[in-house]
Design goal:
By secondary structure, the chain is of the alpha/beta class. It is built from 9 helices and 11 strands. About 40% of the residues are buried.
Length: about 270
Amino acid sequence: MPQTITEKVVQAHAEGLAPGHEVLAGDMVTVRPFHVMTHDNTGAVMPKFAAIGAERVADPAQPVFTLDHNVQDTREENMAKYRRIEEFAASHGVTFFPAGAGIGHQLMVEQGFVHPGTLVGAPDSQSNMDGALSAVGTPVVRTDAAALWAGAVTWWLVPRTVKVVLEGALTPGVTGKDVIITLCGLYNSGEVLNAAIEFHGPGVAGLSMSERLTISNMTTEWGALVGWFPFDEITSEYLSERATVLAANGHGDRLTEEMIAGWEAN
């Protein structure tokens, strides 16, 4: 049986595979994700990082810290935690977004940290949202995040894949959230539990990027580990818009027109 997209992406990020081995569902593999995002839970990952004896972040370009979950809490206890996280990021050269910069998952896609065909993780269940940009975005636990900081790799059990074919087009007034809520209601007996969802079919073309982001994000509520959409003109246009913004803000190296042209060609 041919590999699914999820299996191909995992294969591209796997290390230590036997020669000729093709990654398939059920395989336990060592993977090196493109990025790993932590938010306020960075404060909980830091002691785990220390507990395993790590002293330096192995690949400072891999983690991204985004403070977003408890920004309304201005008590000294929370502010002290935020300062510790910022100091840790500075000492290790990790990209850091302070409280108020935005929602972590949103920052990942808007700030060029999610690329088509990459594996991206975070100790947060809504990591599936990265799939809207044709990445395999998936949750990991905090211990895995600490291991990634320490060694840039972790293990992952490759999930089964469920193909969802979307037909037709949305009628006026119907949104991406309606689509995923309907799917959750129609198939509510564990059909996609712990699976990788791959969306296909002619209906995909009519979905805006915001609708795809919503659907991918809420595949979590459906019980899935991944919510992937194919790369097409909508994806390319969105990435080009983001590349222009990033270049204007001095971060053009994260996402370039050359990269986008490569994804269009392949």
